[in-house]
Amino acid sequence: MGQLQATIVPVTGFQQNCTLLWDAETMKGVVVDPGGDVPAIKDAITKSGMTVEAIWLTHGHIDHAAGAMELKEALGIDIIGPHKDDKPLLSRLEDQAKMFGMAGAVRNAEPDRFLSHGETLSIGEHEFEVSHCPGHAPGHVVFHNRANHFAHVGDVLFAGSIGRTDLPGGDHATLINSIKSVLMTWPDETQFICGHGPASQIGRERASNPFLQD
To answer: Which of 63, 101, 155, 175 is least surrounded by Cβ atoms within 10 Å, i.e. has the fewest?
Structure first.
């Protein structure tokens, strides 16, 4: 089993962390949250030398899913995730685009399958546990690779902050419960990539994130 590799590709005016994850031995991997700027994502894929086997979506907001259908068709791969509770968001991406002056540049996304809490996904021999973590979005999921103490948490948790809950389907109490019941059960040394901004570590957020202090 090769080392798990990750490259972040900031996309669109939202500066969303589209992420390439792959196994260094087989060079096979996935794209997490292609939110737009698909030519830039494809260029990063080419430079990495990886072969993309699937698209994984953490949730259905425009900055995370707007480029999913374009990338799916360009590479001939499946869209996997998020949880089915985000199906309404994914079916209204074009409406979201109009709100941000992006009409015509975005298409609604149709996942090939949705994910359930407790499922596992794999990149080669690297196994990721899927957890449903609503609060920022109803169908938000996170991907945890326990063996490598690594996770991709989308917009659930950030370095020093948490996901917004003022968008449709958001709920602050639900988000805090998701973080404490799922992410805060992971070891302190777990490094995570989030949907925006720098990566962080669970122990650091447990100790200093102002939203998680009782």
So the answer is: 101
